[in-house]
Amino acid sequence: MDKARLKATRTLIFDYDGTLHDSRQNYIVAFKRAYRYLIAHQKAKPREWQDDEITKWLGYSSKEMWENFMPDLAEDYQMAASKIIGETLLEKVLSKEAKLYPEALETLDNLKNKGYKLIFLSNCSKAYMQAHQETFQLERYFDEMYCTEQFDFIAKHEIFSLIKSEDQDEYLVIGDRIHDLEIGHYHQLITIGCNYGFGTQAEMQQSDIRINSIQELQELL
């Protein structure tokens, strides 16, 4: 790790679910509700799900999730099931059932006060991003907020090419899935992997630095 580069970095790109927001329980509820819909329409067979079989899809865009989970499912059923998941997740945040990881907002505030520019980049819908923005007042911390729906769900490393500032030299990426770390790989940026999120150990090994809690950033940066 080049400590001089780390010290020179002034712009931080944050993933959201699995990095700042602990979406595990709400996503499990949403996924199971959507799967029951598919069973009711004879598009899936009843089965028991382990939590980690469900949460492994966190961090994927809706399109990417279905391409990998049930690629032969008709598109209209994919869209209907995705709508159920999205609506359930929105219900959860609007009913105050969404929760951030401990010290998440305090860490963002700490970094903001140190002069870092913070960018939000999540594989989510605009409605989901806006609901969380309002619930947790994220605009107080983030200078820019983006979701993949705004870019037709293209890969995050492609979105970075569209949003990066030409006069900004060093960025740092913080996330829990390979989709986040790919930004660093494609653009030669420092990456911080979140061990506590939803990524596998193999994914985390692709990061330059690994943290076990979001608050570790307060000492690291």
Automatic annotation (TrEMBL):
<dbReference type="GO" id="GO:0008967">
    <property type="term" value="F:phosphoglycolate phosphatase activity"/>
</dbReference>
<dbReference type="InterPro" id="IPR041492">
    <property type="entry name" value="HAD_2"/>
</dbReference>
<dbReference type="InterPro" id="IPR023198">
    <property type="entry name" value="PGP-like_dom2"/>
</dbReference>
<dbReference type="InterPro" id="IPR023214">
    <property type="entry name" value="HAD_sf"/>
</dbReference>
<protein>
    <submittedName>
        <fullName>Phosphoglycolate phosphatase</fullName>
    </submittedName>
</protein>
<dbReference type="InterPro" id="IPR036412">
    <property type="entry name" value="HAD-like_sf"/>
</dbReference>
<dbReference type="InterPro" id="IPR050155">
    <property type="entry name" value="HAD-like_hydrolase_sf"/>
</dbReference>
<dbReference type="GO" id="GO:0005829">
    <property type="term" value="C:cytosol"/>
</dbReference>
<dbReference type="GO" id="GO:0006281">
    <property type="term" value="P:DNA repair"/>
</dbReference>
<dbReference type="Pfam" id="PF13419">
    <property type="entry name" value="HAD_2"/>
</dbReference>
